[in-house]
Amino acid sequence: MKTKIQPLVDIVDSGQLFNLYFDLPGVKESDLNIDIEDHVLSINAKQLIGDAESSAKCSEKYYECRYELGETINLEQIKAKIEQGVLKIDLPKIAKKSPTKIKIEVA
């Protein structure tokens, strides 16, 4: 039996970056795919439950979600790690540029 699930996520703004925490219980690193294409973060994972040799005793859970990332995320410095069923993704922000003041001369 196959079950498709959108994982629960906590998003924390810690100033310099966003931290995303996904609940993926029982998912191994080898069964996890994280991709970014056109500023869209895609997470896909699968978890086998039961005996993989017997389809009658085995079920599969598929975790899938997509998030559109804004232009303020530094795509080159994104980091991810999974530990004890929690996937943590760090999305560093691009430093904001201060507005430039233009001096107006009075003629």
TrEMBL record:
Domain SHSP, residue spans: 1-107
Ranges where the CS domain occurs: 4-102
SUPFAM superfamilies: HSP20-like chaperones
Pfam families listed in its UniProt record: HSP20 (PF00011)
Stored InterPro entries: A-crystallin/Hsp20_dom, CS_dom, HSP20-like_chaperone, HSP21-like
Keywords, ordered alphabetically: Stress response
Entry superkingdom: Bacteria
Record PANTHER family: 26.5 KDA HEAT SHOCK PROTEIN, MITOCHONDRIAL, HEAT SHOCK PROTEIN 21, CHLOROPLASTIC
Stated family: Belongs to the small heat shock protein (HSP20) family.
Name of the protein: Hsp20/alpha crystallin family protein
Organism for this UniProt entry: Lentisphaera profundi
